[in-house]
């Protein structure tokens, strides 16, 4: 295990992204007495829904329990896919979905990519939007063969621009021999997640949307034809309520909490690298991920100077320094040339997985919800928030493929993911065994 000297003297246990935008409550916006729609959760989904409501003249209020942007919206890796992760289970393999629905899901996932690109342009969001594609490294030869089978579907249904890269050409994509080749997905991008969040927040504020920080929702109860929403800073009535809490879904909505498995994901950022080294690691500046069950994902920082490396160092929140040591080890397994490079930032955030590995929107007990990013939060939560708003406003042209009544739960799961360390250990063992056999 790497020693403590991997840490830069200025190491901070906070996201690197917060150097550009740090979550803040600012001057607290008063919780209004009423609104047409109350949105619980102020991340990508909540802000995207509020922004779409404003475009259709629907009054909404966003209720965030903490500072604005404190959750995964400013903590993720900043990669944006157009469907490559849809249906990918916790085990790293695609969940079983019938071909017709697969087509619809991938088509809508492609629309999600188009939506985020359009939002960034329309709202002039300065967030380092870079369309440079993604390389998904194959952990074994069998994984490479599985990727080959997916290419046609990704291209036909999601216009992914996907193609295979054999191992002998892998160094065109990554300065490492760690994988058995892999798949390039050209229709993928990256951005600065905190600046994208700030851009959505600024767009809502320009339209006069009430975005209320430090307004923890304590109770939601039916109130005639609408809802009474009690918060830590007052009570409001609303015609509809949207639950957009994703990986931070809590006891206030127990039926939804049973359907979301929050899994901690950890990320580090290195100190600035020598220019020649930085430019050599990922020559085409793509985002990188792999096919391991316990996967890693990484990219260069938007300015191209640092490695930003993420993965599941632990399956629950843990000490940032402990997780940084684990991730530094993973990083140097892939890039031995980064041994000796120090870490300046280490942080964690919750990713919301579902039991069928699919994002979901719909209604539960009269409450609308948009939940379950499954590792594709930037595009999918923006999209599901927008689609939920369009549905409530009555302007949707067609039903969203992710709006379906089947949102599975399990009788033995109540929202406490106590089993994750056990399952995580099992998947790590399976990864090691697969690699050994390969």
Provide tags for this entry:
single chain; 438 residues; FAD/NAD(P)-binding domain; nine-stranded mixed sheet; 9 helices; alpha/beta; eight-stranded mixed sheet
Describe, in plain words, how this protein is organized in 3D.
- With 438 residues, the chain is an alpha/beta fold.
- The chain has helices spanning 44-55, 99-122, 141-158, 193-206, 254-257, 275-281, 320-334, 377-393, 420-437; strands at 7-12, 34-40, 60-63, 79-80, 134-137, 162-165, 182-185, 189-190, 210-212, 217-223, 226-231, 234-243, 260-270, 287-290, 296-300, 307-311, 343-354, 360-364, 367-371.
- The chain has a single domain, classed as FAD/NAD(P)-binding domain.
- Helix content is 29%, strand content 24%.
- The protein is globular.
- The model has no long low-confidence stretch (mean pLDDT 94).
Elements, N to C (H/E): EEHEEHEHEEEHEEEEHEHEEEHEEEHH
Helix share of residues? 25-40%
CATH level-4 homologous superfamily: FAD/NAD(P)-binding domain
Radius of gyration: 21 Å
CATH fold label:
FAD/NAD(P)-binding domain
Enumerate how many helices there are, as a single number: 9
Mean pLDDT: 94
Q: How many E strands? A: 19
What coarse outline follows from CA principal-axis ratios?
A: globular
User: Number of domains in the coordinates?
Assistant: 1
Strand content: 15-25%
Distance between the termini: 24 Å
CATH architecture: 3-Layer(bba) Sandwich
Largest sheet: 9 strands, mixed
What is the strand arrangement across the widest sheet? 1-17-13-16-15-14-5-7-6
Low-confidence runs of at least 5 consecutive residues:
none
**Helix vs. strand class:** alpha/beta
CATH class group: Alpha Beta
């Amino acid at each position: 295990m790497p020693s403590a000297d991997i840490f830069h003297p200025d190491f901070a246990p906070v996201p690197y992204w917060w150097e550009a935008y740090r979550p803040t409550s600012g001057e607290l916006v008063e919780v209004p007495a009423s609104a047409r729609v109350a949105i619980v959760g102020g991340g990508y989904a909540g802000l995207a829904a509020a922004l779409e409501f404003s475009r259709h003249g629907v009054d909404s209020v966003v209720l965030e329990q903490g500072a604005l942007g404190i959750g995964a919206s400013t903590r993720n890796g900043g990669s944006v896919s157009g469907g490559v992760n849809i249906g990918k289970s916790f085990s790293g393999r695609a969940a079983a979905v019938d071909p017709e629905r697969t087509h619809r899901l991938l088509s809508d996932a492609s629309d999600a990519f188009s939506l985020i690109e359009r939002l960034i342009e329309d709202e002039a969001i300065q967030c380092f939007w870079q369309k440079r594609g993604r390389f998904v490294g194959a952990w074994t030869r069998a994984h490479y063969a599985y990727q080959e089978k997916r290419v046609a579907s990704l291209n036909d249904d999601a216009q992914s621009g996907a193609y295979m890269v054999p191992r002998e050409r892998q160094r065109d994509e990554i300065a490492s021999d760690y994988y058995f080749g892999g798949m390039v997905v050209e229709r993928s991008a990256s951005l600065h997640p905190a600046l994208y969040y700030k851009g959505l927040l600024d767009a809502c504020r320009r339209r006069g949307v009430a975005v209320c920080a430090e307004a923890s929702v304590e109770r939601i109860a039916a109130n005639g034809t609408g809802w009474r929403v009690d918060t830590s800073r007052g009570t409001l009535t609303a015609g509809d309520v949207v639950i957009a809490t994703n990986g931070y879904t809590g006891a206030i909505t127990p039926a939804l909490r049973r359907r979301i498995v929050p899994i901690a994901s950890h990320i580090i950022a290195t100190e600035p690298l020598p220019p020649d080294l930085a430019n050599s690691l990922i020559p085409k500046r793509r985002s990188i991920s792999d096919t391991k069950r316990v996967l890693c994902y990484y990219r260069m920082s938007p300015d191209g100077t640092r490695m930003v490396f993420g993965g599941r160092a632990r399956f629950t929140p843990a000490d940032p320094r402990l997780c940084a040591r684990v991730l530094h080890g993973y990083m140097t397994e892939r890039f031995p040339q980064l041994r000796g490079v120090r870490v300046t930032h280490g942080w964690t955030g919750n990713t919301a997985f579902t039991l069928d590995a699919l994002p979901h929107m719909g209604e539960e007990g009269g409450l609308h919800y948009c939940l379950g990013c499954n590792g594709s939060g930037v595009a999918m939560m923006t999209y599901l928030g927008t689609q939920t708003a369009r549905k409530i406003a009555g302007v949707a042209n067609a039903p969203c493929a992710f709006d379906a009544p089947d949102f599975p739960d399990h009788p033995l799961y109540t929202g406490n993911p106590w089993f994750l360390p056990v399952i995580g250990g099992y998947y790590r063992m399976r990864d090691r065994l697969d690699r050994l056999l390969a």
